[in-house]
Design a protein that fits this description.
- The protein is mostly helical and 85 residues long.
- It has one domain.
- The chain is built from 3 helices and no strands.
- Helix 1 packs across helix 3 (70-84).
- The longest helix is centred in the first third of the chain and has 36 residues, at 2-37.
- The model has no long low-confidence stretch (mean pLDDT 84).
- This is DUF2508 family protein.
- InterPro entries: DUF2508.
- Pfam families: DUF2508 (PF10704).
Length: 85
Amino acid sequence: MFGRTKHQLKTQADQQLLEDIEEARLQIRLKRDLMTQMTDTDEQLKMSLLIQQGIFNFLYHQARVRQVSPKQVAAITAQRMNRDY
């Protein structure tokens, strides 16, 4: 009875964490693409990329610490693939 709610909260929090990781990964990819397209990159863009990489690393570490289920990772990946196509 009490464990069900706790498990559901962890699942929802893990789901949100994985979505945040995917969003951070997308932002990194977009900023790297922008840097390759620009002939002269400014310091603000470089710092923004470094900050985004730090956010991604932190979120990824949190997912490892929380021992996020591989099933959830697969579900997020499938959702992302369906959304991209």
